[in-house]
Amino acid sequence: MDARLTPGVWVRHPERPEWGLGQVQSAIGDRVTVGFEHAGKQVVNVRVVALQPVKRD
Predict the structure, then answer these.
(1) How far apart are CA 30 and CA 9, in angstroms?
(2) From CA 57, how far away is CA 48, in angstroms rounded?
(3) What is the pTM of this model?
(4) Do 34 and 6 contact (CB within 8 A), yes or no?
(5) Computed from CA positions of residues 8, 50, 29, 3, in that sequence, does the dihedral angle turn out positive or negative?
(6) Three-class SS of 1-57
């Protein structure tokens, strides 16, 4: 797992840009729970999808 994906970090899903920004809620093993603006809470397997950390102004 990417060590930067800790609770509170803002991310984007590279294959689902329509989901908007998401904030990491929890990270356990390879599963990261993210609350996305337009898709709600999603559990992402980071072995399959490389979430992209972003800075939020």
Answers:
(1) 16
(2) 28
(3) 0.91
(4) no
(5) negative
(6) CCCCCCCCCEEECCCCHHHCCEEEEEEECCEEEEEECCCEEEEEECCCCCCEEECCC
Order of all β-strands in the sheet with 31-36: 40-45, 31-36, 22-28, 10-12, 52-54
pLDDT in tens, the chain (57 residues): 667 899 999 999 999 999 999 999 999 999 999 999 999 999 999 999 999 999 876
Cα separation values, 6 from 3, 18, 22, 52, Å: 7, 22, 12, 12
CB 32 within 8 A of CB 26: yes
